[in-house]
């Protein structure tokens, strides 16, 4: 029997994916050696040992920034930046409704109020026009989330921040070595926050980094203290005078050690992911009913994942039908990303961050209605997410592209 290459795997045709996806080991002898050295120091405290310090020095060199602070997680890194930026009770902080919930945790711990800006339909990043429309006299900061490796439009965001006197914190948890018009994401705002949890480009198990971009040593000291219960350790003597509350978000030498080895792999990981993401976009260009994620001209994405959108009306199939047919082609994918925009979470719907209290929401009476960010809601309803890995081969990407083309063309031609 002759096989028709255009017959969907779902209907008995050949699967688009013919070989297993490339895989690899993230950790090796480099990490082991660093860990051994860390233990041989006879201390795992970041301030006495050399591993966290070396990790940060290398990070600063890679990023060309003067100062950075280590943290216990990406969530902690964002909280540190908010605290160091002076975000406090009753302030409003504008951020993205499509992000990890770690983005909003620190805002609420500072008793500040998250305000959500709508997104661009194709980059999935915050729309500067929407950001500006959300500004009030309470607005103190913008947390700009660079989603899935793709940079926000930082020039207009920085212009808005300067115009209204706001701090800008970049959430780079998904966006290592991402470039906005040649500049690295995380070096443009006042602070850049990174995560080294086990699912990010590089892993230390858990961990985070905050860059302090003002170049002012005092700002570095403030951020450093905010990660360490407000202990001031960077002068001659440790100062323990407690002038305000700050959490303990310290990184240990074990994480720092693994981080050193991981950092040396980061450029290779990012260039592989960039290459794969671009290759997939070329492979699916021009399809009816499928829109590839957009990387704006002059920018570079390092693709933490790959999220395309289905236009069900044009395609002639539902997103779920498309997703299922693609899965049968041997190409794993998930409809959507987070289940709902962040503001539809019970915390925001009930306006209850702290049990039994509506504080700080009751300071302004803010409510979070469905429809406040219609584009963001539309993205989550129509998106299909595919994995990108630095271990994938060109063949993997080409077969992903072929599968998407086959499924999309089938549904479109059947219309
Ligand atoms: C992962 C992530 C975080 C939180 O990082 P953790 O290390 O898990 O706390 C914050 N923001 C975004 C966009 C993320 O993807």
List the helices and strands and how they pair.
Layout: H1 29-40, H2 51-63, E1 67-71, H3 74-84, E2 92-95, H4 102-109, E3 113-116, H5 128-133, E4 139-145, H6 154-164, E5 167-171, E6 179-180, E7 183-184, E8 191-195, E9 208-212, H7 217-226, H8 253-283, E10 290-291, E11 305-310, H9 312-315, H10 319-328, E12 334-335, H11 346-349, H12 374-382, E13 383-387, H13 394-414
Parallel strand pairs: 2-3, 2-4, 4-5, 5-8
Antiparallel strand pairs: 1-9, 6-7, 8-9, 10-11, 11-13, 12-13
Helix pairs in contact: 1-8, 2-8, 3-4, 3-7, 8-13
The chain binds pyridoxal-5'-phosphate (PLP).
The site of pyridoxal-5'-phosphate has 15 residues, from helix 3 and helix 4.
Question: What does this molecule look like?
Answer:
The chain has 13 helices and 13 strands. The strands form three sheets. Strands 1-9-8-5-4-2-3 form a seven-stranded mixed sheet, with helices on both faces. It is of the alpha/beta class and 415 residues long. The structure holds pyridoxal-5'-phosphate. Pyridoxal-5'-phosphate is lined by residues 73-75, 99-100, 102-103, 145, 171, 173-174, 195, 197, 206, 208.
From the alpha carbons, calculate the radius of gyration and give it in angstroms.
23 Å
Query: What order do the helices and strands follow?
Result: HHEHEHEHEHEEEEEHHEEHHEHHEH
Which class of secondary structure composition applies to the elements? alpha/beta
Number of helices: 13
| Mean pLDDT over the residues | 97
In what order do the strands lie side by side in the largest sheet?
A: 1-9-8-5-4-2-3
CATH class of the domain at 29-262: Alpha Beta
Which cofactors or ions or other ligands sit in this model?
pyridoxal-5'-phosphate
Major beta sheet summary = 7 strands, mixed
Global morphology = globular
Helix content: 25-40%
Could you give me the name of the CATH homologous superfamily of the domain at 29-262?
Answer: Type I PLP-dependent aspartate aminotransferase-like (Major domain)
CATH architecture of the domain at 29-262: 3-Layer(aba) Sandwich
Q: Strand share of the residues?
A: 5-15%
CATH topology tier name of the domain at 29-262: Aspartate Aminotransferase, domain 2
Low-confidence stretches: none
Total number of β-strand segments?
13
The N- to C-terminal Cα distance equals 27 Å
InterPro entries: DegT/StrS_aminotransferase, PyrdxlP-dep_Trfase, PyrdxlP-dep_Trfase_major, PyrdxlP-dep_Trfase_small
Family: Belongs to the DegT/DnrJ/EryC1 family.
GO molecular function: transaminase activity
Pfam family, one: DegT_DnrJ_EryC1
